[in-house]
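Worked example 2:
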Amino acid sequence: MRTTTVGDVTLLLPDLDPEDLEQVTYLSDGDVRDGLVDGVSWRGEQLAERSVRGCRITGADLSEVSWEAGALYGCEVVRTDLSGATLTGISIERCAFTGSRFTGTRLVDVRLKDVLFDNCRFDYATLNRVSAAGSVAFTDCTFGHGRWSSCRLPGVALRSCDLGHLELESCRLDGADLRGSRLHDLRTPLDNLKGVVLGEDQIPDLARLTVEALNIIVRAEG
């Protein structure tokens, strides 16, 4: 395992050596462990109470996968397509996602602990009742036209992300580090931003959100 720090968040992540992993091509009926999953297509697969542990998944097509219960533990996921997937009731722990796509993905009742999302796309993705049980960080990610509802992500790092047109509803983000992220066109009641950490350069966007939330009318003098 290795540690990575994003802002004030320190994450414990896997450090896998491909030479120690066995090539995996087909999805068996059992759990997947210590596998090298390179360029495979499991598009539309139905998974229930399945565990994937200690795997490096690279350039895979996992779009429209339906995964209910189970766990993703100690995995590196690189340039993998999870567009349109539905992940329900799974636990994701000590995992790193890099350059992967979650366009239109649905995450429901997902538990995150020591998870890093770097340069990933969450356009039109829906997060419902997603919770952080430990350190979680998003860096250089895009969330355009996504929707988060009833999520509990205190202390999460959202650094240098594009939050434009992201909709927040009944979310708890106290202590979340949003410095360097684009807030323009973020759609949220102000109470969803209670206790977040911002940079001085983000104050104008926060002022705009406040004006819109309070229905303040701004007019030129004269």
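The chain has one domain: 2-212. Residues 2-212 form a domain with the Pectate Lyase C-like fold (CATH 2.160.20.80).
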